[in-house]
Amino acid sequence: MTTDEPRTDPTRRAGVRQVAERAGVALSSVSRVLSGHPDVSELMRHRVLDAVAALGYEPDHLAQSLRRGASMTVGYVVGDISNPLTAQIALGAETALRRAGYSLLLVNSTSDPDLDAQHIRLLRQRRTDGLLLAMADERHAATIAELERYPGPCVLVDRVCAKLPRASGVHSDHRAGLSAAVEHLYRLGHRHIALVNGDPRVLPARERAAVLRRFARGVPDLEVTVRPGGFTAAHGRDATAALLAGGAGRPTAVIAGGNQILPGVLAAVRAAGLTVPTDLSLVTCDQVALVEFLRPPLATVTRDLGDLGEVAAALLLERLSGRARRRVTLPTGFRADHSCAPPPKRPT
Amino acid sequence: MTTDEPRTDPTRRAGVRQVAERAGVALSSVSRVLSGHPDVSELMRHRVLDAVAALGYEPDHLAQSLRRGASMTVGYVVGDISNPLTAQIALGAETALRRAGYSLLLVNSTSDPDLDAQHIRLLRQRRTDGLLLAMADERHAATIAELERYPGPCVLVDRVCAKLPRASGVHSDHRAGLSAAVEHLYRLGHRHIALVNGDPRVLPARERAAVLRRFARGVPDLEVTVRPGGFTAAHGRDATAALLAGGAGRPTAVIAGGNQILPGVLAAVRAAGLTVPTDLSLVTCDQVALVEFLRPPLATVTRDLGDLGEVAAALLLERLSGRARRRVTLPTGFRADHSCAPPPKRPT
DNA sequence: GTGAAAGCGCTAACAT
DNA sequence: ATGTTAGCGCTTTCAC
Known about the structure:
The first copy, chain A, contains twelve helices and twelve strands. By secondary structure, chain A is of the alpha/beta class. The longest helix of chain A is centred in the first third of the chain and has 16 residues, at 84-99. Chain A has helices at residues 16-23, 27-34, 42-55, 61-68, 84-99, 113-125, 141-149, 174-188, 203-218, 233-244, 262-271, 305-320, and strands at residues 73-78, 103-108, 130-133, 154-157, 168-172, 192-196, 223-227, 253-256, 281-285, 299-302, 327-330, 333-335. The termini of chain A are far apart. Chain A folds into three domains: 16-59, lambda repressor-like DNA-binding domains (434 Repressor (Amino-terminal Domain)), CATH 1.10.260.40; 71-172 and 305-331, 3-Layer(aba) Sandwich (Rossmann fold); 174-303, Rossmann fold (3-Layer(aba) Sandwich), CATH 3.40.50. A six-stranded parallel sheet of chain A has the order 2-1-3-4-5-11, sandwiched between helices. Helices cover 42% and strands 16% of the residues of chain A. Chain A binds a DNA duplex through residues 15-17, 25-29, 31-32, 35, 39-41, 44, 59-60, 62-69. Chains A, B: Residues 14-68 form the HTH lacI-type domain. Chains A, B: One of its GO terms (molecular function) is transcription cis-regulatory region binding. Chains A, B: Keywords: DNA-binding, Repressor, Transcription, Transcription regulation. Chains A, B: This is HTH lacI-type domain-containing protein. Chains A, B: InterPro entries: HTH_LacI, LacI/GalR-like_sensor, Lambda_DNA-bd_dom_sf, Peripla_BP_I.
């Protein structure tokens, strides 16, 4: 045995310490080389990098985080990741964040406002550097309180909250696309339009309702009905069934206020034995898989959800690099399709 | 000024240190109280908890992780989180893991095997305690190599790899549901069935192909065609278009081997001007939103993806608590529907 | 039952 | 340009 190196446990991963020993230099020199400090000689750089390669050294991200005071981790609080819209946003955000060296910690709150608040606390204790948040209730006191205690920057995703002036935000201009839809229906002759809406505790639902109400104010011969509820198929089904049971007073066009609501609306329409668009015109919000293969293909209020995630990530990265808070609005569109037609002649 | 407490910076969060000072006890006592050590007097417990409450102390999860050698974090490597199936699995897994105190670090590899490998490295450096993995290529050398170097337990989600004997795994029994579908088609009279398949580098695609081939071997008068490719709509469209252009030799039934492939298949069928099921029978794999509202409603090979995520989480938690590695197979079913009918009479 | 002290793996002064 | 030292905030021996 001619080795003079102290036999360190080979099953255990090497740390800067082992690298320094092997290279015959100080710990700090290893750290300097690895973090790209300018003042290092070529000789030093080589000695260290050789030792790093020989030992298969990898920095401990956890220790770095503790020491540097930055975890390079971002929390993403969502109501329901299994909603394809949420998932598309997550994809956009994760990709952009990872490019900047951040990782995404995902927490799901099943659209429970109290869980939102708990999760913000968790993410604070985990020392995430920032937050992306699509809370279930923009005015929930506990959520707002936790957010105020949260030390890092926060970006609201398709949400707004006046009580959080520190937060950045990105949201779709839900009014634009839906206005186009309502106008389209009105021009086709519809005089009673119903919106089977989601939960008005979040921006998208409130904006959609606002579009219908505002439009109706400007056009006296238009009647509008808004049925708020959960973003669920069950609500879509029940609300639509009730609307369609309205006899002569029933709407001639129905707008599904979200992809989760749509299946319920379709089920109710089918159960009522109505034909689209002959008996009833239909519009849905948010493009999801297969809508274009329904018969007839559904007219849709469209937007780019990957964008939403990417912009959210960009806004957070801005704040993390010290820049000011900002709010961004992204466009929505409307794709008319065969699910909209003039209303049936009403028997007089 | 009668206070004798040293005025600590109030903008800064309190640590165990501050709690100990305020309570007039040692650091270690604070730690003991907070971690529920048995040997603590009631007096001590109260003094500490009072100070904790007064200062609004919250433990630093990062520091705990470093010291304890466990980050209470699990990495989840997916090909595409925006795929609703993946997202449903993620929901099941996140929920189960969070219940056990773990958080989920999500990384998306855009189905790029090299990114899979890179991500495993990242998650190792971040000291995640374990891994959930749905890799893009089960045999990719870099992925396997990184996985072998990964120190914690790993659960393959709907994937298998003989070279990773240490890994737990959960996957659907893709054969069962698809066998039922093929049998159903055969009984209806179909003698040429095509599978527009996904990428055979992953288990689901291989199992689906195997079902068709095995069935054909047992039934000499059945012709089967398998068109492997990416799990994409583009592949679905192109492959289906090619199949349908086959003239007299074209299949009378087509199976879409995944939810991503389905829209392409539907587009090609529509483009070919064929009517389902009169001209062509159709089956798809994996229930997704709206399939039941297509006309006709699509026959579907079904499974519970939330389960897949939950079981994956459970298997990982088992390993994390020292128990042995395990493999679980979950059931699939088949829901026949109006998209399947006897094949059209062939002109002789 | 409680306190003192060591150290998880790393970085950033501060020296030289 | 390199080495020495003091922590980041916490847990955990080890003494008493």
